[in-house]
Amino acid sequence: MKRDDLLEIIQNGESSKTEFKTEDVHPNTLAEEIVAFANFEGGTILIGVDDAGVVIGCNKANLEELIVNVCRNNIRPPLIPVLEKNVIDGKQIMSVTIPRGDTAYSTNRGLYYIRVGSTKQVPTQQELLRLFQKRNMLQIDETPVLKASLRSIDSEKVNAFLAKLGQSPLNDESDTSLTHELINLSILVEIDDVLYPSLAGLLAFGKSPQKYFPSYTIQCGAYGGKDLAADVIREKDLAGSLNALIEDAIAFLKLTMPQTSILERGIQRKDIYAYPLEALREAIVNAVCHRDYTISGAAIRLLLFENRLEIRSPGGLPNTLSEENMLYRQFTRNQMIASFLTGYGYMERRGKGMLRMIKACRENDIDCEFYQTPDKNEFIVTFGRVPSRQ
Q: Is the backbone of residue 26 left (phi > 0), alpha (psi -120 to 50) or beta?
């Protein structure tokens, strides 16, 4: 690290990417700071600088060995930092750079930490679930819903799904036969000899999924201006299982979108909507399938303004995807939900939805953009008419 860069970092003080420590830092404390950075986006610990940003230096002859031992023995799994020695005003500083981890790290005492601003914090259960999911260590939609039971599943919905697949209906002659089939479908999971619906099973086939997860809805709104402060034309909160959410969202758009009518062959009326339904269907299916279900308290939002339509989904892109490569790479955050939606016929060609969406918009002279919010807590798809062709 160059001297000027180091001085600038010290002058700027501690942040989400920088931590100051003196050389007498306890090994357990150092391990906690390293874990927090690895579980975040990486960062640098400057040893030999106090909390006020004063360079006091470090003189321990075995400091480098101590740091390496902490990373190997006090962190699970062990990691390898980048160590650099720098001298400022005759005082030595050791910089410890920790890369963003590709797994979830803990201390050897089993404690997890994340970086929140300029401090390390013990993650909440929800934050820990999100960390595991981002590191591809957990499929959240396969986890059991402990407050639900077999009675929470609607067997008629399951049979309708099986009929679409060309399979026989559930064998409900006995509880044993029924539960065995539901386990094979991953609708039920067994934990300590007790059966619970999986999250995906409850969302796809539950009698009332929002009884357990009130925010797993789609909030729809149509407004007479360009933002939420405009007059409300129509608002509605949609609830129900996955296929009901999708169909009801499309029905809301058909009811509220501007449209024109033409006569095909002079005899048959055809409605032309402001935005192509094929593209909207793909965007809604993607939102339902790929939203981050570890984020509670946030619903999918479908917002129709006078100049655009926004579909906003909780959670950013998974860590293997970016806005640049998402059109050409496939990654499914919720694999079981995707499997159920494929069986329903909503995802016939997985991995091609965004491309089909863009193609449909181009054919109708509609702009289609997608991006994450700066905090990566929401993914947004926006549809709007090309200005030069309005």
A: beta
